[in-house]
Amino acid sequence: ILVTVVGTVISLGITSTMAYPLSRKDLPGRNAFLFFVFFTMLFNGGLTPSYMMWTRIFHIKNTMWSLLFPHLLLNGFNVLLVRTFFSENIPEVLLEAARIDGATSMQTLFKVTIPNVMSSFTICIFLSLTNGFKLFDQNLALTGGQPFVIQPGGTTIKTTEMLALNIYNTFYSSNTTSQGVAQAKAVVFFILVAGLGLLQLSYTRKKEVQQ
């Protein structure tokens, strides 16, 4: 819950603050920034260089940061999606009219800009939520569920083990009933992600209608 909720909130903030300037035609170096976002979205160094970067340069292995920083806080697809909505759904005359009426920059942002791109935020929130819950490969590579905490009763708690990794570890454990337990967890996991997605879509659509 911590990684998914915090990651989604910060991701939406970073995405919108990066996408809005890129939608402005008067931004110096705009095309270069757009090329950087688009190119790195299509191509990256691969799993091994990424692992070396996060562990040897940023030193976030076996920490909660390793679940937030790589691929969760900023997504190139989300940036380009929101940037496109900013460019096509907010006419310049609308912003000019807000300035003429005396609206400040913050008032223009929250009263004019964001309501007109709420549908793109809906998509980004949904993708970030589902990606957060489905986080598996970087959880396995960068933490493996560590660091471990031993409870007084002798129970070991994996403090950074996400749901998908927990299902994986349960399925391949030595317990003879583990596969059935893992399948049950997978069903509950699906219901949880689907339910959260439907609730979020319903709430955001109501906000769009009201606005």
Percent range for β-strand residues: under 5%
| Biggest sheet record | 2 strands, antiparallel
Termini separation comes to 29 Å
Provide a count of the helices. Answer: 11
Helix-strand sequence: HHHHHHHHHEEHH
* Poorly predicted spans: none
Radius of gyration over all CA atoms, rounded: 21 Å
Overall pLDDT: 83
How would you summarize the topology of this molecule?
Layout: H1 2-23, H2 30-42, H3 47-57, H4 65-72, H5 76-89, H6 92-100, H7 105-116, H8 118-133, H9 137-142, E1 148-150, E2 156-158, H10 163-171, H11 178-210
Antiparallel strand pairs: 1-2
Helix pairs in contact: 1-4, 1-5, 1-8, 2-5, 5-8, 6-7, 8-11, 10-11
Give a brief rundown of this model:
By secondary structure, the protein is mainly alpha-helical.
Question: What would you note in describing this structure?
Answer:
With 211 residues, the chain is mostly helical. It is 73% helix and 3% strand. A two-stranded antiparallel sheet has the order 1-2. The model has no long low-confidence stretch (mean pLDDT 83).
Which labels suit this protein?
211 residues; mainly alpha; two-stranded antiparallel sheet; 73% helix; elongated
